[in-house]
Amino acid sequence: LYPTFVEAAGGTLPVGYDIDGVSHWDMLTNGTPLNRDALFWHFPGYIRQQTPVTVIRKGDYKLIHFYETASYELYDLINDMSETTNLLAGNPDQATIDLANDMVTDMIAHLTDTSAPLPTYKSGPNAGNEVPLPALITNVPSNSTDGCQAESGYDAYWDFDAASDGNDASG
User: Fold this and answer.
1) 124-139 as b/e, with b when 16 or more CB fall inside 10 Å?
2) What is the predicted pLDDT for the residue at 151?
3) CA-wise closest residue to 74 among 49, 45, 102, 46
């Protein structure tokens, strides 16, 4: 958003400062399409009811990676604007898994290229360490009702302070 606000105000971006994002001013004022292959949202923390997620919007599709469960949801935003039908739920076909994995690959590249902070384990043997990057999706039958999941599961927590106690928002 920052580059858009700067352009709308007639300003210039600071020199020597790495800005994540581009201005959307031409899109907002002239209807000019964005010149991007994908849009990304990355939220590695816990605030109120929000849990750590990374999201990619590419073409007509939106893929959400949930760090707590190492699971994914995929939506066709043209035919399902309300995001009510997770295309990865149940037993998706291979074409759907391939589409999602293409987006996972882009997600991993974006997280790596931007040095995005990842959530950290809150407890257990890995407490304090970063969770791994999202993994490719497999369609292995299981007793889970969550549909497709990454190959390994983990609990992910982001702790904003140096001390962990009963006042932590993440539990």
Assistant:
1) eeeeeeebebbbebeb
2) 45
3) 102
